[in-house]
Amino acid sequence: xxxxxxxxxxxxxxxxxxxxxxxxxxxxxxxxxxxxxxxxxxxxxxxxxxxxxxxxxxxxxxxxxxxxxxxxxxxxxxxxxxxxxxxxxxxxxxxxxxxxxxxxxxxxxxxxxxxxxxxxxxxxxxxxxxxxxxxxxxxxxxxxxxxxxxxxxxxxxxxxxxxxxxxxxxxxxxxxxxxxxxxxxxxxxxxxxxxxxxxxxxxxxxxxxxxxxxxxxxxxxxxxxxxxxxxxxxxxxxxxxxxxxxxxxxxxxxxxxxxxxxxxxxxxxxxxxxxxxxxxxxxxxxxxxxxxxxxxxxxxxxxxxxxxxxxxxxxxxxxxxxxxxxxxxxxxxxxxxxxxxxxxxxxxxxxxxxxxxx
Length: 358
Description:
By secondary structure, the chain is α/β, with parallel strands linked by helices. It has two domains: 179 residues, Glycogen Phosphorylase B (Rossmann fold); 168 residues, Glycogen Phosphorylase B (Rossmann fold). 39% of the residues lie in helices and 15% in strands. Strands 2-1-3-4-5-6 form a six-stranded parallel beta sheet, with helices on both faces. Strands 9-8-7-10-11-12 form a six-stranded parallel beta sheet, with helices on both faces. The longest helix has 17 residues. It is globular and about 60 Å long. The protein starts with a strand and ends in a 7-residue tail after the last helix.
């Protein structure tokens, strides 16, 4: 029996996509013959409030976890760091027994020329990169992420393995239907700058000029002061709902009844909301950037992430059509992106399959 320990983010940090990736990997490793997936996710012991502070997160990542994991070095055959922002943990284990999943290169941008990052940020990025380079294998989700890794000389290509994400079971049992008596646009993700939420709100305001009954549901973020001011000045507050901490089952229901799902990101490592929405049958309007082109299918309308009129026009066209994506598109998404395929690639890399290099 091969034991693979999946080292997950602290649950208290509330990164749903990172939690999903670790949980699905551990669960599906256990479905592979002669493999046991161990989800390693201790509680963040320094936290005293509902949302941990930056200092509490740092103490957890760089003090608590190394101490606790040091005592578990012989519990598994291999150790998989599920999030590259925890890549320093790879330094705790023998190189031939550890790997890291690199979702994007944001954690390493401080090391790029002319980044303008603080010395503290540079030192942190150097530590994380040292951990990344320590790993026997580094997994990535899209060719776009691989291209950035190679372009900036972060890792040699022989160390890289392509392991795309999957669609969780909660999104597989739904058929798109327009919500009776309610029409809403849906955005899933945080409100950090690269998610382009300021632009999202402008597009929503433009759509409402012709669709005054339209609402916006934002899942997973927290408005910035500037975004709250915009909602107030444009009198959009009564038509906007922001939800956090919902289950994947609840999210699937939101996808299933959305008039359209909007993904206006400036950059992404993968874009899980695209495949989740399509798996539920919802139409998607997304930024025309390489990574979303790579994961998208028929049913996705692509627009430049700064072209407000194009976005407004695309949303209106989707609304006028008034139907979800074709069944063939749903089937193709579900067939291409599975967590079992993800787990199999990762298992093969660790047990020394001849096909692990990519």
